Each structure stands twice: as structure tokens, then as C-alpha cells.
Amino acid sequence: MSFWQLEDYMAFDKLEKIFVTSAMGDNIGFIPLNEDVSESFTEKELPMPLPILVLRNAVLFPLIVMPITVGRDKSIKLIRKAYSGSRILGAIGQMDPGVEEPETGDLYCTGTLARILKIFEMPDGAVTVLLQGIQRFVVEKYVQHQPFFTAYIRMLTDIEPPKSDKDFEAITGAVRDSISKMINSSSHMPPEAAFAIRNIESPKLLVNFISANIEFENHSDRQILLEIDDVKERALKLIELLGHEIQLMEIKNDIQRKVRSEMDQQQREYFLHQQIKTIQNELGNNATDGEVERLSKKAAVKKWPQYVKETFEKELNKFEKMSPIAGDFSMQMNYLETLIDLPWDECSQDNLDLNRVKEVLDEDHFGLEEVKERILEYLSVIKLKGDLKSPIICLYGPPGVGKTSLGKSVARALNRKFGRISLGGLHDEAEIRGHRRTYIGAMPGRIVQTINRCKTSNPVIILDEIDKVGNDFKGDPSSALLEVLDPEQNSTFRDNYLDLDYDLSRVMFITTANRVDTIHPALRDRMEMINLTGYIIQEKMEIAKRHLIPKALEAHGVKPKQLSFDDSAIVTIIDEYTRESGVRNLDKHIAKIIRNRAKALAFGEKYRKKISASEAKKILGTSKVQKEIIGVNNFIGVTTGLAWTEAGGEILFVEASVSPGKGTLQITGNLGDVMKESAIIALEYIKAHATDLNINEEVFEKKNVHIHIPEGAIPKDGPSAGITMLTSIASIFTGRKVKKGIAMTGEITLRGKVLPVGGVKEKILAAKRAGVSTIILSADNKKNIIEIKQEYLEGLIFRYVETMKEVLNIALEY
């Protein structure tokens, strides 16, 4: 309560209007009356026992008029009875304002005798009573508790100093100065309040007036002042309390000045947002409440680690205090949604029926025995041990051999969810580790996003095209993948967005690549490398009959009884329309034939239900592929070589010719540096061993040598064409043709050694497609041939060599 809200402080004739207005508002004012009011009171007027009115938040002082709003039934009954009688009662404060029904033990002992001046009936049913303080008293004994308190009291007399007491005069002046300073420092007290203070001449009235009206920090401070008998001591205590209040007010004012000076536009908007939030809370329109309740319900049944639960609760408390129109409201909301949606400890049950797993793998893919065997080994250990860190498998090989589709098959066999992440062209590390939450539009990395989509913590995830990961100024994704693909580290993978450890050890990662030389060495070391080579014609035919044709028929709405393929048609498509290690183009050509028949079905036209070789040619048109065949070699200086590409094995022809000149060497055919160096080594070897080959040494100074490899638009490089170039140069200088049906691959040295090369299986498949009968290889490649299935080697003769001299003895005619 504060008397500073009154417009007129001393006009008694306006008292009723003033207090009626004040009682209906937020602030209630008090004004003092005549200090001789106690003289008009006699002992006969004092009812015994005295009715006691309990005050909740106020303390009535002698000589002071105070309006009291009465709400308790006890108090209303007391007021009405006293007003109809002597109008005298005792006003005592309660110690704790929060107690609704106080007992005698909850009340102070010292109070003020008061006279009821007026009762006001408010429109809302409340009662306001205007009390005038008369004299202090102390309760001797409570007599009754119902219907209101009554008690026997003993009157207290104030000890007033004589008017000649200079010390008291100085103390009174100090009180006036303190209250004036307080009025000037406060923004809530009008300057007119100082006028009311100056018009109070009585020191006792001044002390009581200020004591009754100042809002002290502690509720009990007013009661302490009331219980002091000596007015001089009361004034000194009042000065102490006023000094404390002035200090607090100055500190608050200083803080407010600093806040105002430092507040910028963003801070002002924040306070406005907080005000809007408060208004929305009052109206019940705060959208945050519904979201908090929804998230809390989901969190109550969520299975997750304790550290995640604690983080979620902390972030949820922060979110609850945010305004919906705050800039980071949606960011915080997205983070909480991500935490609650992730399957932290939720895993699908693995299918440990190994026979069923083997059936599913065989049903979906033909061949690929090494991969299937590795999956079965993994499940066998889980079945025996109950737990095992998932292996990191890398399937590498040419396109179209089934690397990606194998991942889906593995997931189906294990009864796990499947996810796929394409890494081709990825050059930002944040794509793997996620963005930090401070960024606008931040989100988790692709690993966490994929797990979130799968809704389990143990899915099968394919990391496709891992050999095509790039890097730039944004970071190296390969380095980020080191943690993901390391079974020793990925149990505590930390995504930048989550900023929490996530266990990836239960995830089965299967990576795919076309070539391994572009994969980061440290990354390659963490994976089990399994090579998926190309298929021979027989395997492609089986794949077409078991998988490609049934899938294509279903995709085009054609029933198996409406269309079938003859074996000759499949062989024709493979042999004349595709040149690949996989079956992707084969699938496209089969789909084209089925679409042709689907059109005939839709139009109701007649057609042949069985596709023959001639029908396939008629639908597909002329052959799009130049068949790789060595043919009959009638030319000196032409040799057949074997090469490896990302699309599988290929054969290539090395052509050599000589012309009059000064002994220069020219190399064409879009060759790389390594291949050019192989040509130089081959020529130098021929020059060094000219006598052994019956070549006149003078011819090297009079003839220019030209080496060419056809299909010049295609870049070529690598050391494996070394013995092929050597044979072509030897053939052109000796005039001896290369024997029919021979192809070769191997690296050469100046010492005349033949070194092993890679991609042997792909090169063997290319040789079989081209009709090669004999293949010359380094003796060190014999171990690679042993690992290849016998059906790939049928119809081929392998000649293993260690020196270049052996190559020429085998390859050249006599």
C-alpha cells in the first residue's frame, strides 16, 4: 500500500471520496488525522473483552486513518457488530500473511486500538472499513475464538521526549530529509508527497505517518516500529530502515540506468517477446505448452541412455521458457524432435535362422559366394556369442554387378531395416558429422538422418560410391568417415548437431566402390575388401532368367505366361548389345523388349509369346556394340593386350610400325605417362637385345618407330600393357607375326623381368568374350588364377613367364 497515490493529503472533507476510489483500485492511500484524537476517547467506551480484527498485510499506527478491505467471514461479522455498537476494536497484524485462517499463535501481541469511522459496501460484495488508530495496546489473554477473536488488553503509553529536546528535533529533521530524499529518488512517488510531509508538524504524527505508509523490504519492520514505546527510539529505528530502503532504491536506480544505457534493439525485442509470452500465458494461447506436454509424454516412454535423458530434460526446460516468435524457437524445437525421434536403444531382432538367411541371399543374387559366406560367418558368431560388433564390408568392382542391391538383400535376410547414403561427389565434412546447432538450418549428418529414418539402431546402411568422395575447403569427408567405419571408435560417434555420443557399432555398414586406389588408405585399412568381378555369359544368362526377366515382367504388368525368352535371345542380347561386366545394360534391353510386347498387348495386336534371337534383333535394331574379337591376325606389329577399366575388363590392340627417319619414337592413342614409359622401356630392351633377336642394330638409327593404340578418344594408362608393346615392337623389327588367339598382360622392367598386374579376373572375362585361347601372364599372377572359379577358366590356356625373352618366344611365329 502507498499513500503517495492520493491527490489531496490533508483535506478531511474529501476523505470519503478519496478512500472509496482508492479501495477499488490497486493502490490504497492513508492520510493522517488530528494527533489529539485519543483525548476524545474514554475508558467507558472500551468494550471488554475487546474484539480483535486480524490484519493480513497492514499495521495500524495511532493517529493514522487507514482503509482496510475485509474478506474473511470472521472479520466481516466483527466489523458489522462493532459498527452497530461502540465502534471500538483492536487491530493486530498476523505474522505470516499467507495463512488464511490464523490462530492466536499466528498473531503479534502488540496492536492498536481503533475506531470505525465508516464502512463501504463494494459492488463486488467486498467490505472496506475506514479505521482510525487511537492508542497502542498489548494482549493479556484471548477469551474467545468464535465467531471472532476477543481478548483482554493492557493499554500502552508512548514515551514522548520534551519539546526542548534538541536531539529529538534533529532526529525529526533527519526523518524529513530521508523521506524527502526517498521521494526524489523514486519514480513511483509523486513530488506532491513532499508537500504532505511538510504539513505534518507533530513529530510523533510524522513518525507514525511515515511508518504506516512506507513499503519496507521486510513485512515485520512496521511491527517492530509499532512495538517501540519511546517515540525517539522509534524515530531512530525509522531512520535506520529508511536509510536501508534508500540504499536499495539507489542500487535499483543505478541498475536500471545501466540496463537502459546498454539495451539495444535486440534486447528491446526480447523484453517485448517476454511480455507477449506473458500475455499469451494469461490468455491460455501459448503454443509452447502443448508442445512441451507432447514431448514430455513421448519422453516418458522413450528408451534411451541416462545422459541423453538428462540432456533432453535440460533442453526442454530451456524450450519451455522461450517465446514462439523468438528466433531460435524453431531451432530448439527441431533439436528436441530429433532427440526424441532417434532410436537410441531400439533395435530390431536379427533373424538367426541361418538356413533361411542363406535361402534369401541365394534367392536375390546369383553367385557372390564370398560375400554370402562373410554374412553367414557374422550371423554364426552372433548366434553362438549373442553379441558382435558389426563388420565393415567394402564391395568393389565394375558397375552393374549387384553391389548396392546386395545391401538390400542382406538387410532382408537379417530382418533389419535398410538405409542408403550416396557419397558420390560429397565434399563437405558436415554432411557426415552434421552442422552445429548455432547455424541457421542446421541438421544432423547423413548417418544420423538415415538411422532416424530406419527407426532402429542396428540397420544395414549402404555407403554407396565411397571411392568418389571429394574434399575442398569445407573439410575432408573421408577423414570424418574414419570414425564412422572404425569398429573401435564408432561406439561413441559424436554428431556435431546432437553433441552427444551415438553408438554406431550395432550398424552394419556396407560400402561400395568401383575402384580402390582412390579410397583414402586409412579408410581402406578399416574395411574388409571383397572384390565383385564381372560375370561370364553363362552367369549373365542365369541372372537374366532368375532375376531380371521376372522383375521386368512384373514392373511392366506382363504375366509370365504372356511372354518368355529363348536362351538364344538372351545370348544375343548379351553378346551383341551389351559390353559390360555387370548386367545393367542387359536389364535395360530386356525391359525394352518387354515394353514392345506390352504395347502389342495394350493394342490387342498379335505377337509371338516366345522371344527368339531374330525377334530380339528385330526389336532392338542393329547391334550397338562392336564385338570384341581378335579375329585372324594377318598383320605384323599388331598384338592383343588385356586391360582393366572401371567398367570391367577390355581387350586392346597395340599397333607398331616403322618408317624411314632418324630413330625417333612416337606414341599416340591418348596414353598416360606410365604407358608411354612402358613403350620407351620396351624399345630400349629391343635395342639392347637386337643381336639375340637377329635385328641389325643400324636399323634403329635409320627408322622411326610409331606405336598406336586405337580408340584414341578414350584415355589409357597403366603398366600392364608393357609386354604387349614389347611384342609389337619386336614383331615389326623381326618381321614375325604374333600367333593367333594370344593375348597378354604384364609390366616390364629394363632388366627384362615381367612383373604381375591386377584385375586378372576381369581381364580373363574380357579375353573369353573376345575368343582368346591363350593368355600370357607373369608367373607371380599364378596365385590369382588359383583363386578363380574353374568355370571362368574353361577353354583358356595360361602361359606363365618371368622374363621378356620368354614372352617373345611364346608370342611370335618362327
Helix content: 40-55%
Unreliable spans: 1-34
Oligomer: single chain
Strand content: 15-25%
Number of strands: 25
- Rg measurement, Å: 50 Å
CA-to-CA gap between the ends? 125 Å
What order do the strands of the largest sheet run in, or round the barrel if closed?
2-4-5-6-7
Taking the sheet with the most strands, its summary is: 5 strands, mixed, barrel
Number of helices: 29
Structural class: alpha/beta
Shape estimate: elongated
Mean pLDDT: 81
Mind explaining what this structure looks like?
Helix 9 (287-300) packs antiparallel against helix 10, helix 12 packs antiparallel against helix 13 (369-385) and helix 12 (354-364) runs antiparallel to helix 14. The chain has a five-stranded mixed beta barrel. With 814 residues, the chain is of the alpha/beta class.
Topology:
Blueprint: H1 15-24, E1 31-32, E2 50-55, E3 64-70, H2 73-83, E4 88-93, E5 110-121, E6 127-144, E7 149-155, H3 166-185, H4 192-198, H5 203-213, H6 220-226, H7 231-262, H8 265-283, H9 287-300, H10 306-320, H11 329-341, H12 354-364, H13 369-385, E8 392-396, H14 403-414, E9 418-422, H15 430-433, H16 446-454, E10 460-464, H17 477-484, E11 493-494, E12 501-502, E13 508-513, H18 521-525, E14 528-531, H19 537-555, E15 564-565, H20 567-577, H21 584-603, E16 610-611, H22 613-620, E17 638-645, E18 648-660, E19 665-668, H23 673-688, H24 699-702, E20 703-708, H25 722-734, E21 742-744, E22 747-748, E23 754-755, H26 760-770, E24 774-778, H27 782-786, H28 790-793, E25 797-801, H29 804-811
Helix pairs in contact: 3-4, 3-5, 3-7, 5-7, 9-10, 10-11, 12-13, 12-14, 19-20, 19-21, 20-21, 20-22, 23-25, 25-29
